[in-house]
Amino acid sequence: MWSSSEAFLRFVQSKPYELAVSERDARIITALPVVERVFRAGSVIVEEERATRTHTFVASGWAFSYLAMANGHRVINDFLMRGDFEGAQQTADGARRTIQARTDVTVFEIDARRAAECPILAMFIFRLFARNSCVAAERLASISRRTPQQRLVRLFLEIAHRHEQADLGSLARFEFPFTQRDLGDALGLTAIHINRLLRLLRDQGSLRFQHRTVELPSRPALARATDFNPGYIHFPG
Amino acid sequence: MWSSSEAFLRFVQSKPYELAVSERDARIITALPVVERVFRAGSVIVEEERATRTHTFVASGWAFSYLAMANGHRVINDFLMRGDFEGAQQTADGARRTIQARTDVTVFEIDARRAAECPILAMFIFRLFARNSCVAAERLASISRRTPQQRLVRLFLEIAHRHEQADLGSLARFEFPFTQRDLGDALGLTAIHINRLLRLLRDQGSLRFQHRTVELPSRPALARATDFNPGYIHFPG
DNA sequence: CGCAGACTTGAAGATTATCAACCACCGTGG
DNA sequence: CCACGGTGGTTGATAATCTTCAAGTCTGCG
User: Fold this and answer.
1) Inter-chain contact A145–B120, Cβ cutoff 8 Å?
2) For the segment A110-137, what is each residue's pLDDT rounded down to a tens digit?
3) Quick one: pLDDT band at residue A93, thresholds 50, 70, 90?
4) Assign residue A148 a region: left if phi > 0, alpha if psi is -120 to 50, beta otherwise?
5) Which architecture characterizes domain B4-123 according to CATH?
6) Ranges in chain A annotated CATH 2.60.120.10
7) What are the residue ranges of helices labelled H in A14-166?
8) Could you check: is the Cβ of residue A190 within 7 Å of any atom of nucleic acid strand C?
């Protein structure tokens, strides 16, 4: 019989992390209290306004994290897939972010304090935080100073690379079970404008997003055109 | 004679952190290799496109982190002051962010791997990462879905609270040695538009930013009007 | 004193939001 | 079996907002 801790150990050793774990570290990790949890599509994985003590690792499925504003808007912070990480929300109010499952999702939850007692895990988590901050910085840059077209293209390019890194499929075509409204909320645009941009990109033949699947027939050209470099997504050798 | 490690220990025990450190933890921390470094105004603290192995803590002075884009724009990610933290940039390309000193700045640099070996420090760093991600999320939300006026007001409110938390001055009035251009680069607006907004806010009597100092004569009203809640800035009791 | 960077103001133009329909798809229940 | 409602997607017209371009002022500092 396998515990969740053992499943977690196998998880961090596999794609997308491929963390090198010594015998001794493996014993430490399997001794940690890890909870594996399954969430149904639509359910809330991490609640807003609630401080959490656990780090969350997405092992399968699609989720998204968002911030709900008083004016009724919803800002999507990121789309989460296998390998994505959300650190414990440890400010006074927790955070105002909610994580919600879009498809069925399985996650591992680890107590942050206990994780901090394991050096290899702590270092690993530093890396995940650092990557998240890179992703956030790129999104901020997109929304601040790129044209809506570039934002949209780069979002898809980024997701494609993350998706491939997690060993979930090809760079040219992948499932993405979100709506045009979601894209708008992630890119600071209205759903209507997203619609028009998608039509334009489709007519140009550069990108297609229909029936929850993204197709990127000429990804390298798009990457060049939008100055996209995936280096911030991957971990150092 | 005091080493940098001892200075660092005193730093984390003081404002804004007030980290509780046991005798034993104190001995571990003072055994860590910490470098205290001073940067002149204008110099680069962390270079772009370079993976770093150290976490950086700002102990005094003003800095800012930005991302330079191929189209010539510069997106300011955050303004850094005492207590602010920048984690080691550990993705394949490092990150594309540069941290530059605006005034003279002193920082502590700690090797990330060694920090991971100290549980109390690792946990502390988790918290700092989590706070940074809250700050980034709020900024993203501002730029995505708030009016330029609200963005500007909220930025100043946030800085005021961080500044006060770091024990650097009052909420109503503080130094902020940046330009209108910097504000534009941080909020996704042109310097010209920032100028007009500042004039408007000044005429309304709600806010004043001149000669590198910010005055907030009626901060509570502004906070109410822009739905600003500082809970994401502070650490849990 | 003069220069460079920062700030200020005006006019014109482009872009994206808003408002208002309408269509297509799908699962449900009468 | 078909009517129905809800969600997501599509399209057009209009209006507000912010950028761009252009010019000029102010300020600190060598």
Assistant:
1) no
2) 999 999 999 999 999 999 999 999 999 9
3) confident
4) alpha
5) Sandwich (2.60)
6) 4-123
7) 23-30, 112-116, 119-145, 148-165
8) yes
Contacts of A114 in chain B (CB under 8 A): none
Distance from CA of B109 to the nearest CA of A (A): 15
Cα–Cα distance between A190 and B123 in angstroms, integer? 39
Contact B95 A130 (CB under 8 A): yes
Q: Which of B84, B124, B133 to mutate to test the interface with A (most CBs of A within 10 A)?
A: B133
Give the ranges where A117-187 is alpha helix by DSSP (H). Answer: 119-145, 148-165, 180-187
Contact of B195 with B202, CB cutoff 8 Å: no
Mean pLDDT of each 10-residue bin along chain B, 237 residues long: 88 96 96 96 91 96 96 96 96 90 97 97 98 98 98 98 93 96 98 98 96 96 97 89
- Which of A125, A107, A132 minimizes the C-alpha distance to A56? A107
Domain B138-233 coded CATH 1.10.10.10: yes
Chain D positions with any atom < 7 A from a protein CB? 7-12, 17-22, 28
- Type of residue found at A78: D
Q: Evaluate whether B140 touches A136 at the Cβ level (below 8 Å).
A: yes
Nearest residue to nucleotide C16 when comparing alpha carbons to its C1'? A193
Using DSSP, how many helices (H) and how many strands (E) does chain A show?
8, 11
User: Side by side, which strands form the sheet with B34-39?
Assistant: B34-39, B105-111, B54-60, B85-86
Task: Measure the CA–CA gap between A193 and B165, rounded to whole angstroms.
Answer: 41
Per-residue pLDDT for A1 more than 60? no
Where do the CATH 1.10.10.10 domains begin and end in chain A? 138-233
Pairwise CB contact (< 8 Å): B188 & A92: no
pLDDT in tens, A142-200: 999 999 999 999 999 999 999 999 989 899 999 999 999 999 999 999 999 999 999 99
Check B137 against A97: CB less than 8 A apart.
Answer: yes
**Residue A229: Cβ-neighbour burial (10 angstroms; 0-12, 13-18, 19+):** middle
Q: Beta strands A105-111 and A54-60: pairing type?
A: antiparallel
